[in-house]
Amino acid sequence: MNKFLQAIIKEAKTGLQEGGIPIGSVLVYDGKIIGKGHNKRIQKGSVVLHGEMDALENAGRQPASVYKNCTLYTTLSPCPMCTGAILLYGIKKVVIGENKTFQGSENLLRKNGVEVVVLDNQECVELMENFIENNPVLWNEDIGE
Hints:
Elements lengths: L2 H15 L6 E6 L2 E7 L2 H4 L6 H9 L4 H4 L2 E7 L3 H10 L3 E6 L7 H6 L3 E4 L3 H13 L1 H7 L3
Parallel strand pairs: 3-4, 4-5
Antiparallel strand pairs: 1-2, 1-3
Helix pairs in contact: 1-7, 7-8
């Protein structure tokens, strides 16, 4: 298994252990993780700390030239907010663990020249399916339903 896929799954499991939503993300530059994070919406009472946003925040301020050469890995298809951040910072590639439990704004990413790779990873699918089944209220709150 790819080390970056392992890293996002580890982040997702950390979020779940903390009582949050199991979505993890890492920002990779030059073959190295420069930012990692997981959904902390529940833990921090935050409206914006999705996994991708947490990874970007933890990467700290970077020059535009760094973002343009990064790949963002995430266990789940990015929502419109996270997609906006990806586009804002000019990240050119997004690798998604799975998009069966939630189909985010992948078409908007593609339309704006972002390479989108969906791994259809079964462990990512199972993490979300189990969470959604056991926590429908929290899940629906997070995705706005």
